[in-house]
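Support case: magnesium ion complex. Customer-provided input:
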Amino acid sequence: MSETKPELCDACNNSGWLRDGACECREPWLLARRLEEAEIPVTFEASTLEAFDTSVSTSAASAHAICRGIAERGPTDTGLLLTGPAGVGKTALAVGTLRLMIENGAAGLFVAVPKLHRRLQKSFAKGARESESEVMDQLIDAPVLVLDELGARRYTSYSNDVLQEILGERYNDRRATLVTTNYNASELGPRIGDRLMSRLRERSTLIEITDTPDYRLRLQGAAPTDQRPPRIHPRDQIRFDA
Ligand SMILES: Nc1ncnc2c1ncn2[C@@H]1O[C@H](COP(=O)(O)OP(=O)(O)OP(=O)(O)O)[C@@H](O)[C@H]1O
Ligand SMILES: [Mg+2]
Ligand SMILES: [Zn+2]
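Agent response - structure generated as follows:
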């Protein structure tokens, strides 16, 4: 996380408390801790809802408005299912939503599903740093959870069971999950199974970001994806096979 992480201070003897209540160093210190514990990837550290450019498309602007509404309400049992092609801002919006909730006092966690599977695989190795149940409990107990890139791969039945258990427990305890995926709702169902899909749909606001250029290309300074390269008449093409 950031190098300028706030610290507790001498005035309170590094306890965060004064005789008549909390010291002013306590709140920024707690916020920095919650942000650190959220494990937001470095690439998305600057992703806030404020920083999100709503001029890219109508669907991205309305996705942004819904995310803001959910974030401002704080953790409830209503989650998000953010769908759309690559680079349209799904992860940026999910992180922005999580971040605002954390700034408003909630605790939360970011997990990319492919990385979760690697962590679980490692947990079975001898002398592993963390056990399978520790990994799962962290995800089940997080008051807000971002599950990024759901359905990116076809899952083994073990992976699917794990996801079902995590989402099932969260669902039972009415904790919201913010999910991003490259698949639309009808494509995602067959990939993750009907039970998981129906749990997700019941308590999630479905947001589809469509007709939005890949923002990564813009960040690289390249032409938007919807601008095709100019067509060259066959007469003017250079032939390499001549
Ligand atoms: N509307 C936007 N305003 C500002 N930055 C954006 C916007 N949309 C995307 N970005 C930035 O562009 C990059 C790609 O966006 P992001 O990773 O959120 O896309 P994605 O939809 O999650 O793509 P993928 O499906 O490949 O995971 C990120 O650095 C993100 O912060
Ligand atoms: Mg993403
Ligand atoms: Zn202090």
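The first strand starts at residue 17 and ends at 18.

Case will auto-close in a few days if no follow-up is received.
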